[in-house]
Amino acid sequence: MSILQYNGSAIVAMVGKDCVAIASDMRYGIQQQTIACDMKKVFQMGDKLFIGLSGLLTDVQTLKQKFDFKLKMYSLRENRPMRPKVFSSLVSSTLYEKRFGPYFVEPVVAGLDAKEGPFIAAMDLIGAPVFAKDFVVSGTTSDELYGVCEAFWKPNMGPDELFETISQSLLAAVDRDCLAGWGAIVHVITKDGVTTKQLKSRKD
């Protein structure tokens, strides 16, 4: 078993029309043993900026604190919030500088830029980024998420339709992965703000 699969996770970010959504499961497990079902894997980094961190949960918590610190230093120095594309580069360089002893984390960044609109990106554990205009996935449920997202996603979805699509995609995918699931949380980012909803799912 890969160390990236030790805790299990499912994270997906999806683009709509002038909106973007990011969702994750809520299981905290050690291999096949479930410890809790209220684990946060998606964190708000700005008004309209989120990061999802899949992988080893000790490294997830370490990186969350590191990104919090770097964002605060940036806003103090620049006197403005960090844009999603810039934050994605920050995440990528933070991971790459530790490439010889990497953090076992695969991040997903989702945000809404006032100038460039919806932004999503995913990275591997040394920070090699992939940018997409439809969806990106991460975690042990990646294979299952690719299948359902390709079937369900369509362009120019509104916030409500985007919420329904990302929710159904995530719930369908985690049903086929014993290392993820046990509830889910979805954040939909629009120009008016962020809507967060919690989903119930199978717990067997």
CATH topology name, in short, is Glutamine Phosphoribosylpyrophosphate, subunit 1, domain 1
Distance between the termini: 22 Å
Kindly report the average pLDDT value: 90
Annotated CATH homologous superfamily: Aminohydrolase, N-terminal nucleophile (Ntn) domain
Number of domains: 1
Supply the number of helical segments: 4
User: What is the H-and-E element order?
Assistant: EEEEEEHHEEEEHHEE
Biggest beta-sheet profile: 5 strands, antiparallel
Assess the beta-strand content as a share of residues: 25-35%
Global outline: globular
Could you give the order of strands across the largest sheet?
A: 10-1-2-11-12
> Which regions contain 5 or more consecutive residues with pLDDT less than 50?
none
Number of beta strands = 12
Structural class: alpha+beta
Residues in helices, as a percent range:
25-40%
Rg computed from alpha carbons, rounded to a whole number of angstroms: 16 Å
CATH architecture term: 4-Layer Sandwich
Which features would summarize this protein structure in a list?
204 residues; alpha+beta; Glutamine Phosphoribosylpyrophosphate, subunit 1, domain 1; five-stranded antiparallel sheet; 12 strands; 30% helix
How would you explain this protein's 3D organization?
By secondary structure, the chain is an alpha+beta fold. The protein has a single domain (3-199), classed as Aminohydrolase, N-terminal nucleophile (Ntn) domain (Glutamine Phosphoribosylpyrophosphate, subunit 1, domain 1), CATH 3.60.20. Helix content is 30%, strand content 34%. The protein has four helices and twelve strands, in the order ββββββααββββααββ. The chain has helices spanning 57-78, 84-96, 142-152, 159-174, and strands at 10-15, 19-25, 28-30, 33-36, 42-46, 49-55, 105-113, 117-123, 129-131, 135-139, 184-190, 193-199. Strands 10-1-2-11-12 form a five-stranded antiparallel beta sheet, with helices on one face. A five-stranded antiparallel beta sheet has the order 5-6-7-8-9, covered by helices on one side. α3 (142-152) packs antiparallel against α4 (159-174). The chain starts with 9 loop residues before the first strand and ends in a 5-residue tail after the last strand. Belongs to the peptidase T1B family. Keywords: Cytoplasm, Nucleus, Proteasome. InterPro entries: Ntn_hydrolases_N (IPR029055), Proteasome_beta_3 (IPR033811), Proteasome_bsu_CS (IPR016050), Proteasome_sua/b (IPR001353), Proteasome_suB-type (IPR023333). It comes from Bigelowiella natans. It holds the Pfam family Proteasome.
